[in-house]
Each structure stands twice: as structure tokens, then as C-alpha cells.
Amino acid sequence: MKVAIVGATGMVGEVMLKVLAERNFPISKLLVVASERSKGKALTFKGQPHTVITLEEALAEKPDLAIFSAGGETSLIWAPKFAAVGTTVVDNSSAWRMDPNIKLVVPEINANILTKNDKIIANPNCSTIQLVLVLAPLHKAYTMKRVVVSTYQSVSGTGVKAVQQMENEAAGIKAEMAYPYPIHRNALPHCDVFLENGYTKEEMKLAREPRKILGDDSFAITATAVRIPTSGGHSESVNVTFEQDFDLQELRRLLSETPGVVLQDNPDTNTYPMPIYAHDKDDVFVGRIRRDESQSNSLNMWIVADNLRKGAATNAVQIAEYLVGNKLI
Questions:
Q1: Is 126 a catalytic residue?
Q2: FRET partner for 193 with CA separation of 20 to 30 A, picked from 153, 178, 237, 325?
Q3: Shared domain check, 182 and 63
Q4: Are 161 and 68 part of one and the same domain?
Q5: Catalytic residue among 126, 139, 190, 191
Q6: Catalytic (active site) residue 191
Q7: For the whole model, what pTM was predicted?
């Protein structure tokens, strides 16, 4: 299979190549694609050097699969061009997620909706993926009414410039800043741009995407997204109110049996999810599970995942694996 990785020189692109190699994805020819300024740069995949090519050159190759992680503007322009030559595009940007004609997929939840006719497939927001993977089995069992989520997001979600800003500040170096304020020893309640309603784009992604993935508009979600000085891994404090009551032991068992979810929930041994443990792993970790004593049929929990892996690269590769395994490419 001829595979193009668009945005191969970025943080997610690099992890994408790593995940493809780890999972031994079937590739007969790999195209590593980036902007004009990166043309000719050498990237290594499975010990072999690959030369970066441009989008025009990649399009001429008519790959079977293209995984995009090059930003929304690039995806809006180029994904349809690749789709037009028969390429199946899995797009990691926000460009297509809420398009009613494009599927938004977390494989463990809704890969079964994919068909051969889906030439552009949207990969959800990193914070959304870890959230819905935990919410899906609970919604099925107890029917969610309302979700309140507060995120604690890694600077790696912004990109390499943000990671560099944090490292520079920790080292006392004054340099270019990705954020309007220092991030070292700070917390910024500001992920993505502010909208007219006072929420950020990141917060509205969290409010809208889960309902599309779960195919259900009957529950409400509200979010506050905060950037914190960690270099990898997003965390979420989640409060859920259900239509039906639940037994905590049964709920924990349900989560422990959910594919892709790991239960880490034992206060007696200080066992709970943390970004430092989620680093470089593909699972979503959940813990601090307890009843909300202020509201009936309500639950508090803490969810952590590696935002560059399951939150981006791994989920995209899993979509591609499903397409290949079901002969949809």
C-alpha cells in the first residue's frame, strides 16, 4: 500500500511514523510530505532514510492512503484534491470534523460507520478522543444527561514552539513565545482562540464532537480548557450526570472491560492516572472515580492520555487499520 504522511516533519507527524512502524502497518511505498521549506529533508522510517516531498509531488503519486496532520487550512485545500484521485484521507485537523458529510471516528466506538465511499475521514480532537472513549460505555449503560469537563492540557498540544517556550523559560532563556504569557510555573485558561460566546475553539470542540461521535444530541456538554506546563499528556476532570443511577463497583468493572481504557483507581495505594505514566502509551487511563455527593446520579472522574498518540497519531493509524482490515481501501 502506498501511504503518504502529510505534515511528516511536525510533532504529530513524527509520532505518526513511529506508530506506523511499531504497529507494522502494511506499506509498500512511504511518502513523507511537508511544506516547500522542508523539501529534501531526510526522515528515517524503519531504519531507512526517506526524502521529504511536497504536496504536489505526493498528489501526483496517487497514494492509496494519506494521513494529514498539517493544519486545517492545508487540509481544506488538499484533502479534496487527494480524494479526487482516489486516495482515502484520514485528517487530523479540525477542518472536516463537524462537516455533516464527513465521518468523525474513534475506532473503538464507531468505526463500523465507515464505507468505501468515505474518501475523507476526520480524526477527532485529542481531548475529545480520551473523553469519549470513557464516556461511551457509561452512556450506553446509564444514559448521560450532562457532562462538565475541565482540561489540563500539555504544551505539546500547541506544537514544538510551545514546548520550546516552556523549556526556555525553565532555563531562564528569553526567546520567541508561542503563548501571550509565560507557561512555566503557570496555567493558561486559553486553548486555541476565543469565540464570540466567550468560549475557546478547543472548548467548543469538546462540546460538539462527542455528540457527533456517539451519534446522540440528547446530552449536553460544557468545557473549560486550560494549558499547563507539562510536555506531554492531557488530563481531564469530568463530572457526569446520568438519567439512571449506577453502582460504583459495576461502573468500574464496565470501564475495566472497555477496549483501550485502563482503570487506575485505588486511593489506598495512591493509584490514579497521571501524564507521566501515560507518556508514549496508546491507552486512555481513568481513575479518581467517585460519586458526586452534591447531585443525584452523578459521577466525578479523572481521565489522562498521551495527546500525541491516542489523541492524534494512534487514533488515525487505527482508523487506517480498520479500513485495510475491512477492505475499504
A1: yes
A2: 237
A3: no
A4: no
A5: 126
A6: no
A7: 0.96
